[in-house]
Amino acid sequence: MSSIWDKEIECCADHKKIEAIQLERLKHMVEKAYNNVPFYKKKLDEVGMTPDKVKSLDDLKHIPFTVKDDLRDNYPFGLFAEPMKNVSRIHASSGTTGKPVVAGYTKSDLENWTNAIARIVTAAGVTDEDIAQVSFGYGLFTGGFGLHYGLERVGATMVPMSSGNTQKQIMLMQDFGTTTLIATPSYAMYISEVIEEMELPKSNFRLKYGLFGAEGMSEEMRATLEKRFGALVTTNYGLTEVIGPGVSGECEYKCGQHINEDMFIVEIIDPNTGEVLPYGEKGEVVITTLTKEAMPMLRYRTRDISYLIPEPCSCGRTNYRLANIQGRTDDMLIIKGVNVFPSQIESVILGFPQVSPNYQLIVRRKNMMDNIEVVVELVDGSLLERFAELEQLERVIKERIHSVLGLDVKLRLAEPKSIERTTGKAKRVVDLREKS
Ligand code: DLL
What we know:
Layout: H1 7-10, H2 15-36, H3 38-46, H4 68-73, E1 89-92, E2 102-105, H5 107-123, E3 131-134, H6 142-154, E4 157-159, H7 166-175, E5 180-183, H8 185-197, E6 209-212, H9 219-229, E7 232-234, E8 236-239, E9 244-250, E10 257-259, E11 264-269, E12 283-289, E13 300-306, E14 308-309, E15 321-322, E16 327-328, E17 333-335, E18 338-340, H10 342-349, E19 355-366, E20 369-378, H11 387-405, E21 410-414, E22 429-431
Parallel strand pairs: 3-4, 3-5, 5-6, 6-7, 19-22, 20-21
Antiparallel strand pairs: 1-2, 8-9, 9-10, 10-15, 11-12, 12-13, 13-16, 14-15, 17-18, 19-20
Helix pairs in contact: 2-3, 5-6, 7-8, 8-9, 10-11
The chain binds 5'-O-[hydroxy(phenylacetyl)phosphoryl]adenosine.
The site of 5'-O-[hydroxy(phenylacetyl)phosphoryl]adenosine has 21 residues, from helix 6, strand 8, strand 9 and strand 13.
């Protein structure tokens, strides 16, 4: 069994102790936001929720939500609660349109971030014996630097490779004896694909752990990655708005992500009514930071979908867990009245060895109705000339999708390697609705 970085916090036998820490820090956070950020003062005054009214954790529900547009409206530094001289670092999200989402960190925020990650990578099994290759981008994206400092704190030997240059990634993995790979699941998949193409023997690699985060990973995708790398694959979660990676991460039991509860309060709400849901019920993840000084975040609506698991884990940790993210409220497609998440389609596709794990969902609108075309790559391109076999494969994949979603979809089996590979987050949904 792997060790535990901060036993006092992670294995606290009495959850009430954690709740007491949370309450004390929440009071401080609300006060700090109220006194230093005009946006929060206005919002809290509007509902009469002045800081002195926070008496219990239950009072959290009276605090208004913060949403992504609030960050955009206050771009770039309008939500900072510290003067710039106290802000040591700035990160930003990799948004494709408009202005990025900006996050600031004081020295103490950076220290807490490092510890948050140290706990997560320790839970995943990493120790000072490991050689960790970070294949997330180093830059404004929080993934590279975030994971780097936490891994360094546990004493791992760092290989700050950054993303891209896949051949070199593979060379270093072999030459340096990398034991821990840090990447998005889709980039890890791409790396594994190139390793297969190069016909490199498994004995050239010493990989033990894959810490793959920043985007969703179905259980089927995890199983494929574990098989290809011969390593334990875990995921960890976070977002720029509240810290970056470091909110939660899986241990070796892979049954939900341990939340850094002394740094974040995670609530699950009904995305339509805003009502807080009981443990176990699926809804939108809402996060409140408890230690962020530069940019406190009160009840941030993440749009990610998950649920909370309060039971202690077999690893010995007692902190509440967040089930792996099941999708995003804005990822959900409604096709002929059926709710469809790309992850559901991914689960089906990965069950067929004849197709690769690369896929795209093309969404179009015709006669006011949305429809999707699922494009999947064949592993063996010669199948495209064997019509009977091709048709048969197409039929069974469509049937399987139908049995999972209750929906008939258009399916296109495409040439191998015809879907663009990414070194960061994969683009699974191509939305053509505006144009058609
Ligand atoms: O992706 C932070 C991060 C970096 C997390 C590295 C883990 C590892 P953003 O770029 O702001 O930050 O994107 C945040 O990515 O709201 C989720 O929708 C998605 N996401 C992040 N981690 C996971 C995960 C980073 N483990 C957005 N599983 C979030 C599923 C994830 N989705």
